Every structure is written in structure tokens, then in C-alpha cells.
Amino acid sequence: MISFPQRQIKKNYRSITGHFPSIKNNRSVAYESKLEKAFFLTLEFDDTVESYQEQPQITIDFQNRTKTYSADCYVQYNANSKKKNTLVEVKYTQELAKKKEYFDEKFQAIEKACADMTIDFNVFTEEVYPQVYIENIDFLYRYKTHGRENSYDNEILSLLEKEKITASDIAKTITGDPKELIVVANAIWGLVSVGHLTTDLHSAKVNMNSFIGLAS
How confident is the model at residue 6 (pLDDT cuts 50, 70, 90)? Predict the structure, then answer.
């Protein structure tokens, strides 16, 4: 059985803490590290994720005792994704390496408890995604949360019917007005943020020289 007590965020001068405006959950979720915030961002851009909740608790048998274990996140997937709902621990690789024997034993106990509940258990580290991907989706997420410019949607989409072109070329084809170029640029990134357009988010930081294409 999984419970979800309200997470209490305490000031921590060794890590970044705060609250994250989750669109998938329609509320603010609390995070206790920069890595945890990065993980939540990846969930917001994962179309197979239905919702997620921080600080799930389950009971595990660990070190000859029955204990309450608080994970960092519980992820619920869309039914058509065929993925099991998953309990997730968010940890830096350095921390895992420093206490390897402890975490190996603990994670084994967690995996057993999760198997009994027919859910999965995963560990998210900073090595799962390249840092540039996290920076790119962090940039794009503001267009999800603050609304996006959509007055140029049809023009942008029609320009990309035949081939990929750079964001700069899209904007300059649509307008020569310097002020309006900014509006078009915002429209382009807004379309990327909601998945109507695609660009390479994993190899380099997105900018106006990035090639943009239609989503398949």
C-alpha cells in the first residue's frame, strides 16, 4: 500500500529546494534538490506519464526490521503505454557510490516490496539524460506554464510541410519587423513545447539556429 503524506520542505543550504508548477498534476509539487526538479521536468515532457506525486511511502523489510520508506516520486502512466506505475528514487551517482552496499541492500528490499504491489522501482540519476536536454526542456517549460503565442501557428506549420529549416529562417520568412521577429520566435518555441514541432534537444542548446521540423 502506498501513502502520500504532505511533503514539508525545509531550508537546505547544501541543495536547491522549492516548488515546481506541475501541469500534469494541476498543482505545485515540492522538490528537495536540483536533480529532483530536473526529474519532474522530464515527467512533464513524457507523453506516457499520466501524473506523478512526490514523497510516496511504502513499508519495506530492511535490516531485519519493518520500516516505512519514503521515496521521491510515484509515477502513474497512461493505460495505453503498457508501463507499470513506478516508485522512483532520485539520487546523484556520487551519493550512490559512497554508500554502495547500503543502497544495494535497501533497493533490493524496495524492489521486493514493489513487486508485491505489481509496480516497478527505478533510480533516477544525473546520468539518465544529458545536461543539455534538461536545460532545453527547462527553457521550453516556461511556454507550457505561462501560455504561448499562437497567432503565427498556421504560417509556421505550413513553412515546415516540406523540410526542416532553422528557427531563424522561419521567423525571417514570416516577418522583417524586428519586434515581430520576437513574437514569431516565441510562437516557434511554444509549438515545440507542446509537441507540434520537433528539434534536437539532446545534442546542443536550442537557439534560433536550431533546425525545426514537424512532429510525426
Answer: low
| DSSP assignment string, 22-43 | ETTTTEEEEESSHHHHHHHHHH
Q: Quote the CA–CA distance of 104 and 87 in Å, as a whole number.
A: 16
Per the CB < 8 A criterion, the answer to whether 87 and 56 are in contact is yes
The dihedrals phi and psi of 211, each to the nearest 5 degrees, come to: -80, 135
- CATH number, domain of 200, equals 1.10.10
Predicted confidence at residue 9, as pLDDT, reads 56
Sign of CA dihedral 121, 26, 137, 10: negative
Which pLDDT value is given to residue 1? 78
**Which CATH number covers residue 119?**
3.40.1350.10
Could you count the other beta carbons within 10 Å of the beta carbon of residue 178? 7
Share of the chain above pLDDT 70, in %: 95
Give ∠ CA 195-147-155 in degrees, rounded to 5. 60
Sign of the C-alpha dihedral computed for residues 208, 210, 211 and 212 taken in this order? negative
**Are 118 and 40 part of one and the same domain?**
yes
